Structure formats: C-alpha cells, structure tokens
Amino acid sequence: MRGQTADKEWNGKEEEEEGETAGEDEDLPSFPRPSPARSGNSPHHTSMGKGGPLHGLQNCRGENYLTSGASAAVVDLLPPSAGGDLAAVCSWPDEMRFRYRWSSPLHYANTPGVCDFDYSRDCHNAKGEQDMCVVGAINNYTTQLMSYGDSSAYNLTESLMFLAHFVGDVHQPLHVGFADDEGGNTIVVHWYRRKTNLHHVWDVSIIETAMKDFYDNDVDTMIEAIKMNITSNDVRQWKTCREKSVTCADKYASESTSLACDYAYQDVEQDSTLGDEYFFSRLPVVEQRLAQGGVRLAAILNKLFSNSEEESKSGSQFLI
Ligand SMILES: [Zn+2]
What we know:
By secondary structure, the chain is mainly alpha-helical.
C-alpha cells in the first residue's frame, strides 16, 4: 500500500549546539527518537515571506476554513512566540533544516525523471531509508497529532509546525520534481533579467512578481484575492480523500509531478530566459496550488481536531 507510514516516530531530537555548520553531523541518526512533549524549544517569531520560500504563504493562513475546535487546538499547540498565528511559524522547518539535518529530505520527493510519483519507489532519503520524503512526513506528523489530548510521547508543537509546512511544500510542483536536476535547483535560468534557478522561480519569483505587479507588494492582499476565487465546489473537491492511507499526500505529490512536467519544466533548458510568457501561463498554476495547500491543510486539521458535532456537519470524506 502506498503512503503507509503510521508507525514512524519522527520528531525533534534534542537541539544541537548553536553554531554548527551543515555537514558536521552526518553520523547523527536520521531517524530521531521523539523528544518529550512540549520540550519548550519554541521557535523565534518569524513572519511568512521573510527569508523563506513564499510558496507556502497561503497554506498557514487557512484560518477561515478551520472549525472552532480545530482552531482552538492549533492555538493551544502553537508556541507562545507565534501569538496564536500559525503563519508566524510556518517557515520554522526551513530554519531548522541544518539543525535537524534528518529533516532536510522531508521537504521534497524526487522521481527518476518520470511524470508520476510512486511512493514505494520515490519516498526515501539519500541513504535509501523509506518514508523519508515529504509524503511520508505529512502522514507521520498527521499520525502523531492524532494523539493530541492524550499524554503524547511526541512534541506536538513541532509536529504541527512540520505538518503545516510540508503540506505547502508538497503542493509546489518542483518539490516533487526530478532527482537529476534536484527539483529544478540545478537548472540555471534568468527570471526576466535576474539570474536564478528554476526551483527558486517556483518557490519565490513567480509569487514575488505577482505581488509586485498586481497586489501592491502585499502578501495579505494576494492571499485574499486567491481566497476570493475559491468556490465551495473547489473546496469540496480538493479536500475529498478516498485513499486508504493516513492522508492523501500521495495524491498531492502525484499532482505536483504532473504539473512539474506540464508547466514547470516545459520549454525550459539550462540558461533559458523566462519572462512574461512563462509568468502569465504559470501564475494560475501557482495560485491554484497555494489555494489547494491552504484548503487541504485545513481539512487535515479539521479532521484531527474538530469536535464530533462539527465533524459530522462538515461531512468530510477525509480518511484519517
Ligand atoms: Zn520546505
């Protein structure tokens, strides 16, 4: 069965000394033991869009879609520094990539140059350890969060921050791109006149350009505009999940891979210059993926945390 990772126990191990550099901790176990719940290593307050990829921006701002039960659980789990705002800590996993070296492969999955995602073939880290990819991570942290309300062995604050972030990552098409080019990271392109790489174009540049051109450089204005375009039919379709797996992250990854082939990689080579034509034809895809990420994260959190009355009202088909 694809996407079954329910028995894994990834979570924050003890923090290492400040000042370490990437590569110094290669021999640390890549499968860390769970740390005590609420171990107090709360992240510093960060705001979305500062320093990190912008592609998850919608994701952690799906408050409108949360039931009151889910909203209360999220606020309860967030570190105090977040001020009750999931968006404030949504980029925390990116900041922790070097401190928690084991978590680095959990931000993506790669295919061997083909346009479909296959969990058993593609969900592993560089050492070949199964489930160590973005899909396995979403399933794992969802499973961990099921213990909310019991005396959990997990640090559920970290589980929530990881889950929210990774649901954003799996919707960025090039986070499920080809292994050979590291999801577009090794494809050097010019975004208009600026030299960058294809992965960065999809993480940041398209959104940044849209914000500048259409939304007065304001993230919130852009998010509001995207939300206005989401119909109730979209929400119903996007959150439907019939797979016999913890979540439908497997399906979200497959969608990303085909979008990577049909849009991200399409007509792009080393040293391509990407401008208006690429921007205007790809922006709708980027906006739809942001919207889907937000709706689906809310669906997962609602299923996890809603009280029973709310849940029967929402009629969710989500299978967890
Ligand atoms: Zn990430």
